[in-house]
């Protein structure tokens, strides 16, 4: 009976709870199948030789060739060909994982020793728990307050490091309602093993209800707008301001020409760096007069400001406008 | 080199000429004899191995229960750091090169000693100094960064003796560099007459490739650790973003050394296995040139795959693809070796003595390690299993299943040469089998654990992972017994083992043509290489030879 309950516990892969999961599992199974069968064949051949040519056995030992170019080339090229196919498959899926679908819902992740802080754009915040609606594609915009962490959800087969001082992203589309584990995968200090949480996938109506529950929240963009004023950003970055500074309407995702001749895309990283290190990437035609806000804004406040600037429109429709 | 190196007309008994006399401590500490230096390394690394293995044992016991009841998180973190640092830098990297390499390389190329005997002794003292730093860092509380020292945790956040430990590794690195340099010069300059490059033993080839990596990669580690210490002590912003640094830069620099270092930890094992297979199949290794050049290919391509440790680190997707492709590519020369070893068995005259059992164990375990390396090289799969127990299992299959198994095989094979006495064969076989079983039981379940999603460096874990952790701990106990046995019977055999003549295995090679243990200057007559290496076919056709 003990053995039965023991056997019942045995599992070989986590639940497949996202679209990516089944694709990764298929590739994994193929890899295990191919490498496993090659290993078994080599073992079988070696065993056969060991028995047939054991010293005490009389076998045909007429000297054989010690080297053969044909043989060497054969067992080099065939594995290489298989490797190239496997590489291509893995790379294609990786590329797919790195391209964030345009319709994804954004959620902010902040890692710190030793907890995960999560924030929905509606303003709802969670710690070590993430509620998401099933079937909706979620984009995680992540950063760390201290050391490197890694946001890992085995059930979705996704993982990406969470770094201080920069944003990293990953996305998933949960396909199954349920609760899934969330781990920190990058060693981050004493309580690394306690930096775990849960992802709770709800059906859309339950999710909407969950969002409404609890105290009234202010959306992240609104918080950003408030900060934009209270930190004095609007004093320069608004029409009719006395100081000449770039206007931020529709700036998000638009190409920005810099003083040094480069053109960069105004993504989250660019906006973040422009707030914290304003003198590194000066927009062409402007003076480096902006003060640095390094040390004055928390990661949450930075997210709020960026979200507010994003809410001013992204310039996919008119990228030329943003330049002039 | 055709002069007589040792007067052969002395009638004194062998014992007197042996490199093992005199027995004084002073004669050992001031020796410049490569054989003695090799043994000095052996004693030293065994001490480090035992400490690091005990740390692993405590960790495995702790992981018996999901809550990790045995030690606290902080202790656990210090244990795995200790285990990693000591095993990598103070056991594996010096294991085969500094012990067997030091002892055998001059013998195999027919030289009296290495090119720079005093430098060789110096490198042992430097190693001891580095070891002393590391040991001191452990005594006063240890380090909790993991052996990888990732920034900014190591440079800013960790409250442990990071700088002291880094200093130990920094210092020990110079020992590696000097040993590598010594080997390269010796192989170029000290070969016996007739010993052309393509008559060299494959062990010598693998030592050559290893030495290239030691000399070229170790300085990068030294630089990286220095930069980390600079930031930690003087707050120079290099890696910590809050000081204006880039945390990923550390990983690039660290793995630029540490990935080639992985090959430092396997190439020498491959060299040993080539020797063992040839000696116990009584055949020339199939595809000699391919096996030799595959070592160099591994050493070369090994420098270009470091980014596969960083697929989820936010390095660019394009970089990820290049590194993934090169990682698949570096598997080809390893595959070539495995196929050639297997082909060598064909039409051989195979005996399964203890060293051969280890060699066969190596091929099996290394193949599993290599194959799972391919799985890790596949980008999308790595995203899931990166930093999980899958990776732990993979690299233990390479480093323990591969390198330690080869080291054990080599130690048994050359033990009669080193000590002049034979180890007990039955116990030897028993230990080899126990190690093989214990190893697989320890690490195979970790592949499953990893795919299930259990992250590495967790001192406590969710309950569903317990089954596999219990299996793994059970395996570790068996493995522990397996490693304890040789420690005891090899020591026993030093005093009570059966005495052996020059060539107990009836194997080919210069080292088997001189006394066991060899005289101080290795050869009574300068050896000359008259034909290719491993010419067992020739020996077999000579009457009276080929018996064991």
Portion in strands of chain B = under 5%
Count of helical segments of chain B?
18
How much is the average pLDDT of chain A?
Answer: 90
Question: What do we call the CATH topology of chain B?
Answer: Cytochrome C Oxidase, Chain A
Radius of gyration of chain A: 27 Å
Low-confidence stretches of chain B: 1-13, 543-548
Question: How would you characterize the largest beta sheet of chain A?
Answer: 5 strands, mixed
**Helical amount among residues of chain A, as a percent range?**
25-40%
Determine the number of helices of chain A (DSSP H or I, runs of at least 4 residues).
9
What count of structural domains of chain A? 2
Structural summary, described in words:
The complex is a heterodimer of chains A (324) and B (548). Chain A is α+β, with helices and mostly antiparallel strands and 324 residues long. Chain A folds into two domains: 13-48 and 71-217, Immunoglobulin-like, CATH 2.60.40.420; 220-323, Cytochrome c-like domain (Cytochrome Bc1 Complex, Chain D, domain 2, Orthogonal Bundle). Chain A is built from nine helices and twelve strands. Chain A has helices at 2-9, 19-52, 69-98, 204-212, 220-230, 233-236, 268-276, 299-311, 319-323, and strands spanning 105-112, 115-120, 125-127, 129-133, 138-144, 149-153, 158-162, 168-172, 178-184, 197-202, 255-257, 263-265. Chain A has a five-stranded mixed beta sheet with strand order 3-2-1-5-8, with helices on one face. In chain A, strands 4-10-9-6-7 form a five-stranded mixed beta sheet. In chain A, α2 (19-52) packs antiparallel against α3 (69-98) and α5 (220-230) crosses α8. The longest helix of chain A is centred in the first third of the chain and has 34 residues, at 19-52. The model of chain A is unreliable at 317-324 (pLDDT under 50). Chain B is an all-alpha fold. Chain B has one domain (33-540): Up-down Bundle (Cytochrome C Oxidase, Chain A), CATH 1.20.210. Chain B has helices at 14-17, 25-29, 34-62, 73-108, 117-139, 153-157, 162-189, 202-234, 247-264, 267-281, 288-301, 317-345, 354-377, 379-385, 389-419, 425-452, 466-496, 536-540. In chain B, α4 runs antiparallel to α8 (202-234), α8 (202-234) packs antiparallel against α10 (267-281) and α10 (267-281) packs across α15 (389-419). The longest helix of chain B has 36 residues, at 73-108. Chain B is globular and about 65 Å long. Chain B starts with 13 loop residues before the first helix and ends in an 8-residue tail after the last helix. Residues 1-13 and 543-548 of chain B have low confidence and may be disordered. Classes of the chains: A alpha+beta (324), B mainly alpha (548). At the A-B interface, α2, α3, β7 and β9 of A face α4, α6, α11, α12 and α13 of B.
């Amino acid at each position: 009976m003990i053995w039965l309950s023991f056997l019942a516990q045995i599992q070989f892969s986590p639940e497949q709870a996202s679209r990516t999961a089944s694709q990764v599992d298929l590739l994994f199974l193929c890899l295990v199948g191919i490498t496993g069968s090659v290993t078994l064949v080599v073992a079988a051949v070696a065993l056969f030789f060991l028995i047939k040519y054991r010293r005490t056995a009389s076998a045909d030992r007429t000297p054989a060739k010690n080297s053969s170019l044909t043989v060497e080339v054969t067992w080099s090229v065939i594995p290489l060909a298989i490797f190239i196919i496997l590489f291509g498959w893995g790379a294609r899926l990786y590329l797919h994982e790195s391209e964030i679908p345009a319709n994804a819902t954004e959620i902010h992740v902040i890692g710190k020793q030793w907890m995960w802080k999560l924030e929905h754009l509606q303003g709802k915040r969670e710690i070590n728990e993430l509620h998401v609606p099933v079937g909706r594609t979620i984009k995680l915009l992540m950063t760390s307050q201290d050391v490197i962490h890694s946001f890992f959800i085995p059930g979705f087969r996704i993982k990406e490091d969470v770094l201080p001082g920069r944003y990293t992203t990953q996305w998933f589309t949960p396909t199954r309602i349920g609760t899934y584990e969330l781990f920190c995968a990058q060693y981050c200090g004493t309580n690394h093993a306690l930096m775990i949480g849960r992802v709770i996938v709800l059906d859309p109506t339950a999710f909407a209800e969950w969002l409404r529950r609890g105290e009234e929240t202010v959306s992240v963009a609104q918080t950003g707008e408030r900060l934009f004023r209270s930190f004095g950003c609007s004093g320069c970055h608004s029409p009719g301001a006395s100081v000449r500074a770039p206007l931020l309407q529709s700036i998000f995702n638009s190409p920005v020409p810099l003083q040094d001749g480069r053109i960069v895309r105004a993504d989250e990283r660019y906006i973040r760096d422009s707030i914290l290190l304003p003198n590194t990437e000066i927009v062409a035609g402007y003076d480096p007069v902006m003060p640095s806000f390094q040390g004055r804004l928390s990661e949450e406040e930075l997210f709020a400001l960026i979200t507010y600037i994003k809410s001013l429109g992204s310039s996919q429709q008119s990228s030329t406008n943003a330049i002039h | 080199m055709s002069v007589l190196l040792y007067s052969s007309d002395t009638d004194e008994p062998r014992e007197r000429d042996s490199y093992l006399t005199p027995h004084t401590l002073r004669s050992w500490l001031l020796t410049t004899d490569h054989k003695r230096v090799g043994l000095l390394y052996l004693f030293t690394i065994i001490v480090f191995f035992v400490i690091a293995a005990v740390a692993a044992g405590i960790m495995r016991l702790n992981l018996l229960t999901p809550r990790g009841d045995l030690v606290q998180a902080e202790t656990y973190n210090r244990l795995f750091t200790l285990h990693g640092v000591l095993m990598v830098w103070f056991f594996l990297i010096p294991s085969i090169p500094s012990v067997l390499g030091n002892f055998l390389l001059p013998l195999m190329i027919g030289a009296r000693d290495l090119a720079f005997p005093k430098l060789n002794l110096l490198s042992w003292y430097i190693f001891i100094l580095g070891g002393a730093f590391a040991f001191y860092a452990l005594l006063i509380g240890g380090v909790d960064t993991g052996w990888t020292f990732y920034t900014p945790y190591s440079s800013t956040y960790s409250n442990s003796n990071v700088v002291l430990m880094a200093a130990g590794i920094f210092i020990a690195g110079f020992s590696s560099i000097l040993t590598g340099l010594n080997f390269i010069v010796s192989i170029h300059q000290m070969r016996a007459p007739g010993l052309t490059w393509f008559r060299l033993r494959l062990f010598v080839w693998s030592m050559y490739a290893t030495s290239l990596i030691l000399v070229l990669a170790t300085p990068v580690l030294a630089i990286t650790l220095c930069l980390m210490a600079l930031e930690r002590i003087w707050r120079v912003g290099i890696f910590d973003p809050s000081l204006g640094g880039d945390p990923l830069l550390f990983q690039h620099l660290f793995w630029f050394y540490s990935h080639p270092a992985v090959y430092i930890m396997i190439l020498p094992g491959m060299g040993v296995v080539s020797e063992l297979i040839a000696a116990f199949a009584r055949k020339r290794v199939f595809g000699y040139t391919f096996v030799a050049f595959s070592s160099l290919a591994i050493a070369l391509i090994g420098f270009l795959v470091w980014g596969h440790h960083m697929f989820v680190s936010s390095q660019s997707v394009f970089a990820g693809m290049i590194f993934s492709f090169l990682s698949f590519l570096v598997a080809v020369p390893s595959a070539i070796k495995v196929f050639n070893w297997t082909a060598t068995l064909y039409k051989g005259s195979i005996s399964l003595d203890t060293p051969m059992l280890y060699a066969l164990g190596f091929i099996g375990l290394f193949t599993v390690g290599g194959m799972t390396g391919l799985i890790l090289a596949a980008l999308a799969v790595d995203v899931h299993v990166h930093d999980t127990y899958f990776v732990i299992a993979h690299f233990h299959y390479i480093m323990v299943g591969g390198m330690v198994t080869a080291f054990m095989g080599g130690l048994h094979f050359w033990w009669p040469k080193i000590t002049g006495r034979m180890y007990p064969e039955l116990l030897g076989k028993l230990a080899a089998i126990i190690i093989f079983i214990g190893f697989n039981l320890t690490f195979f379940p970790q592949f499953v654990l990893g795919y299930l999603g259990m992250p590495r460096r967790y001192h406590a874990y969710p309950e569903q992972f317990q089954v596999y952790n219990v299996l793994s701990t059970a395996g570790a106990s068996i493995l522990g017994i397996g490693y304890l046995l040789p420690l005891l019977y090899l020591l026993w055999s030093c005093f009570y083992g059966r005495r052996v003549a020059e060539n107990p295995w009836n194997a080919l090679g210069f080292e088997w043509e001189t006394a066991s243990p060899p005289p101080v200057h290795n050869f009574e007559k300068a050896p000359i290489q008259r034909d290719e290496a491993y010419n067992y076919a020739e020996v077999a056709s000579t009457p009276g030879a080929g018996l064991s």
